[in-house]
Amino acid sequence: MTETVTVKTEGTTLSGLLARHYRKVFSGMVAKTYPLNQDLARSGAYLPVGRVVTVLTSAEMAAVSETAQPVVDLFS
């Protein structure tokens, strides 16, 4: 199963977007996201604001990932 996430701030990387969305860092999460978004690499290192990214649901990502580490947010 998949869901979508919209980039809301400038300077967002794919790994940053995924870490904020899942609130965890899953092993291989970026590599698992690229096949769901064939043109994602064309965006460059920083995703444009408004870009919609298709991602696995949190449960699916946890199921296919070997390890998960919590994300510490210093700015909330």
Proportion of beta-strand residues = 15-25%
Which of globular, elongated, flat, extended, rod-shaped describes the shape? globular
State the end-to-end distance.
29 Å
Q: How many helices in DSSP terms?
A: 3
At a glance:
The chain contains three helices and four strands; from the N terminus they run βαβαβαβ. By secondary structure, the protein is α+β, with helices and mostly antiparallel strands.
List the helices and strands and how they pair.
Blueprint: E1 2-6, H1 14-22, E2 24-26, H2 29-33, E3 52-56, H3 58-64, E4 68-70
Antiparallel strand pairs: 1-3, 2-4
Can you give a write-up of this model?
The structure is a single chain. The protein is an alpha+beta fold and 76 residues long. Helices cover 28% and strands 21% of the residues. The protein has a two-stranded antiparallel sheet with strand order 1-3. Strands 2-4 form a two-stranded antiparallel sheet. The longest helix has 9 residues, at 14-22.
Key words describing this protein structure:
single chain, 76 residues, alpha+beta, two-stranded antiparallel ribbon, 4 strands, 28% helix
